Amino acid sequence: MHIEDSRPTIKNPPEQFTGDVWFDPIFVPHDADQRMSGGLVRFAPGARTAWHSHARGQYLRVTEGIARVGTRDGNVVEAHPGQTIYTPPGEEHWHGATEDCFMEHLALLESADDPAETTTWLEHVTDEDYSGRP
Ligand code: MN
Question: Which of 10, 37, 77, 107 is such that its CA lies 20 to 30 A from the CA of 23?
Answer without folding.
Answer: 77
